[in-house]
Design a protein that fits this description.
Elements lengths: L12 H8 L12 E9 L2 E6 L4 E5 L5 H13 L7 E5 L1
Parallel strand pairs: 1-4
Antiparallel strand pairs: 1-2, 2-3
Length: 89
């Protein structure tokens, strides 16, 4: 039985080496800490998340972190339990 030629080429040495090292990720990942900017508004708090271009609102200061984490989780798909935030004024 005749065999068909393969179109695959053997991987080059530098390609194999680059696959062994960790790649830098440009998108949000699990365990990443997000910086948020908080400013006081007339009817609550405005929360900006520059890394993902998100904006949300919280009625009380105590709920700012939770509102930011919910917004990040919904925009990125990261489970809310794995989202960490650092509040910047």
């Amino acid at each position: 039985m005749p065999t068909q030629p393969s179109m695959r080429r053997a991987p080059l040495l530098h390609t194999v080496r680059s696959q062994r090292t960790a790649r830098r990720v440009g998108c949000p990942t699990i365990g990443q800490c997000f910086d948020i900017e908080v400013s006081r508004e007339v009817d609550g708090w405005l929360i900006r998340i520059p890394e993902i271009g998100g904006v949300t609102h919280a009625s009380r200061r105590a709920t700012v972190e939770l509102a930011a984490r919910k917004c990040i989780a919904s925009k990125t798909g990261i489970p809310i339990g794995y989202v960490a935030v650092l509040v910047q004024r």
